[in-house]
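Can't attach files on this board, so I'm pasting raw text. These are the components:
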Amino acid sequence: MSRLSSTGDTPTAELASDHLRKALIDRLRSAIGDALVDSYLVAGVDVWVRVRADAWRQAGLALRDQLGMDYFCYLSAIDWMPSPFGRSEDDPTAEVTERDDTIRQGYAGGETRFQMLARVVSSSTHVGINIKADVSENDLTVESWIPVYTGANWHERETWEMFGINFAGHPDLRHMYLPTEFEGFPLRKDFPLLARLVKPWPGIADVEPMPGVSGDDEGGE
Amino acid sequence: MTMIDERRQLSYIAAQAADARVNVELETEGMTLNIGPQHPATHGTLRIIARLDGEQVVWAEPSAGYMHRGYEKLTEVRTFPQITALVNRIDWLGSFANEVPFILAAEQLMGIEAPPRAQHIRTILFELSRIANVSLFLGDLGVQLGAITPVFMAFRDREYVLNLIEAATGGRFHPNFDRIGGLKDDLPKGWLEDTKASMHKLRTFCGEIEDLLFGNEIFQARTRGVGIIPKEVALQYGLSGANLRASGVDWDLRRDQSLPMAWDKVDWKVWTHPDGDCFARCWIRLQEVREATKIVDQLCDTVPSGPIMAKVPRIIKVPEGEAWVSTENPLGEMGYYVVSKGDTGPFRVKIRSASFNNISITPWLLKGVLVPDIITILASLYFILGDIDR
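---
Top answer:
C-alpha cells for the assembled complex are below.
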C-alpha cells in the first residue's frame, strides 16, 4: 500500500514499523487482557482491533482512560453477509444464478455476521483506532457506550434502527430517521432496496461497448 | 415603627404571597414549544421540540430524519465512480469537499495517488467550497439574530466563488468533478487569475462582516457567554471543525494528518478560541474564510504542471480491504469508512458526517437556556440538514 503522504519529515524506516500504533495495541492488551481477540495494522495508515462483545464497554473505558482516546468519532456496525440481491442490478427475466454466500469478515477477522464498528481518536496525538466486536446473532446486544462517550447516544440509536443491534443500558432507543412504525432493519443485507425491486435498474438495458474496445475487456488502461 | 410603615410592610408581604401563589400555579404547567420542521429559523427541516418553564428551556431535543435519503444503503448498489454524485448531496453548500475523502479512501485501497497537479487543484476547489459554504453562514448568522444586511452581502460575494466553481467544474452546487486517480478536466484558461481577483473581494467581504456584525453591540450581547461548550464535553460528543476549535482544542485535520493534498505546501494558520461560546464559534469561522482565501491565493501561484489523471483501469475494481479517510470539511470532520470486497462497488460505506455529531450535543446544550438563545445556539453550531440526515 502506498504511503499517503507527501511530507518528507517522517523517515520511511520508522513508518514501516509504526511504533505509535503498535504501542496502542500493546497497551490495550495489557488493559483488557484476552478480551482483545485480534488486531491488524497497516503501518503509517491505520490500526484495527477486535474485542469480545462482552468487553465492549470495558474496551471503551480502557481506550478513553488509559490510551487517551478522548475524541469520539463514530459508532456503527457492519453486516458481513453478502447481499442475497447482489448489487440489485439483475435482469428480472434472466435465470437466477447461484451467489457466493460465504461470510468473509474484513481486517482483524471475525466469526459472526454482525460486527460492531467504532472509531475513537486521541486529540493530542491525533492517532485514531478502529474497534470492532463480534455480535452473536442469537443475542444481538452489546453494552451501551453512553457512560464512556456521551456522544454515542445518537449513533447507537441509528445503529439500532438500521441493524437491529440492541444496546443494554441505553436510556431511549427510539427511531432516529425512520417512522416509528417502520418494520425491518434497512442496512441489513437481507433488506432489499425496494426501489430496485419495483423498477429494475435500467443500466442493464443499455450496456454499449465503448468504440474501439471489445465488449468484455476489463483491465484496459 | 409607625402604623403606616407597618401597614405598608404588611401589604408588601401580602403582595409577595400572592405572587408566589401565582408562580406556584404557573410552575405546575410547562409548555411544549415545537419549532419546525418547516420554520425559517431552523434552516432545513430540523424539528426542535422544547419543553419550557416560562422563558427557560427545561428539555429540548432535535428530531432529525425529515430528509433521510439512505445514502449508506444506496452506495452498496453503485460503483465507486458513481458514488461521488451521491455524496455531493450530503453537505450541499460545500459539495466538492464531500467528494474528496471518499475518492482518497478509494485511492488508498487501490494504492494509487493523484498526480501533483490534480492534488493541487483538488485543494484549491476544496478551499473554494469552504469559502462558499462558510461565507453563507456568516450572512445567515445575521438574519437569525435579526440583522438583514449581512445576508445580502453574503449572497453577493458567494456568487464570485460559485462562478469560479462553475467555470472549473460545470456545476455550481454539485460539481461531481473528482475522479479516482485525479480530476475530470483541467482548469480553464485564465481561471487562476480570476480566482486570485475574487479572493481579494472575499477578504473585503470578511472585513465588512467583521465591522458590521462582530463589532456590533447587540450581536455581542446575544452571543457572548451563550451556549458555552467546555473542551471535554466537545470531545465526548465528537464535535469537530470550528465548533471544536472554538472550545480551545487545537486540531485541524488539514494540518494534523498527512493526506495527498496540498495544504502542507502553503503557509496558513489554525485559529482557536478559549471561550467555547457562540461568539467564539462564529469568530473562528470568520477567520477560517480568511485563511481559506490565503490558501487559495498561494496555491494559485504554485500550481505545478503535468497530467491531471493517474493511470487507472477503464473499469475500476477496488481491491479487497478497508479504509478510513476523513478531511476537515467546512462543517467539521467528514469521513468515510469504505469496505471493499474487490468488486466494482463498495461492500459497505459508513458515512461519518460532521453535523450529525455537532447537533447531537443540543439536548445537553439547550438545557436551561432562554428561548431566543435556542436560535443563536443552533445558528452558531452551524449544521446542514443533508449532513445530519445523509
